From TrEMBL:
Pfam families: LRR_1, LRRNT_2. This is Leucine-rich repeat-containing N-terminal plant-type domain-containing protein. Residues 1-19 form the signal peptide. Its main location: other. InterPro entries: Leu-rich_rpt, LRR_dom_sf, LRR_N_plant-typ, PGIP. It comes from Salix udensis. It is found in: Cell envelope. SUPFAM superfamilies: L domain-like.
Amino acid sequence: MKTLFLSLLISTLLSLSLSKELCNSHDKKVLLQIKKHFGDPYLLASWKSDTDCCKDWYQVECDSTTNRITSLTIFAGNLSGQIPAAVGDLPYLQNLVFRKLTDVTGPIQPAIAKLVHLNFLRLDHLNLTGTVPDFLSQLKSLTFLDLSFNGLSGSIPSSLALLPNLGALHLDRNKLTGSIPESFGKFNGSVPDLYLSHNQLTGKIPASLGNMDFSVIDLSRNMIVGDASMLFGLNKTTQNVYLSRNMLEFSLSKVAFPSGLENLDISHNKIFGSIPPQMTQIPLQSLNVSYNRLCGQIPVGGRLQSFDFSTYFHNRCLCGAPLQNCK
């Protein structure tokens, strides 16, 4: 009898523990507000008031110890409207992602500034407008910031260089204007992979960027002028440089390239001089120097002859394999 009673007690306690909701009531209320704000879309159909957000809901993750919401990822579906202020009421959020939702409009939500634990912010392939806000520089834990493929305008805030842990900054494919901030040559901590392509940036590349050792820098398809040679250097660990379709004008002859450079595209500029012999010693996987004002013989060796003529054509007087022989 005693054994039966104990087994019944254990069974009851186990049942109670399994039925106990893990989801924090405040977080659940906020998430249901977000769902309501978007008009109860099918994409958030799993968000039901009578189920546990930590066990049964898609698009969210809870901390295994505290059961507070730490991740909100809403991706690729039918969702329209602005990002609601309620996202700022999830105080333990570390990852916030809205992406590939082209009917999500409006500015970058100011309430995001309240998310002091945020380390991953991805708002890309949306239809956001307005400026890149200064308040993003307050999110000191950010390691990844992606605002690409939107309609953001105005200048790039120099304060983004104050983010001490940033590993990647994607501002590409917007309508940003003005020049690259001088502060981007003085990142306060780690040096991020920098993606600024497909905007309307003007002016010169700040000389201060020569102090940085970017692993990846993409400034292509802007209206940037002048010198870019400071981005290179023998002692740098830079692997990928994309500068195509600007109005850059400098001599390639004396540029010292990083020994580990893998991908280089400087096509569609006004770059002059010759291709340095040092380029035969670089493990290039891709190269494009076409549509410039280069002259002289293409150095023989390394990977340089493995690329076809389109890598080199439309220059002033480049010659040698894979182009026609020098006279």
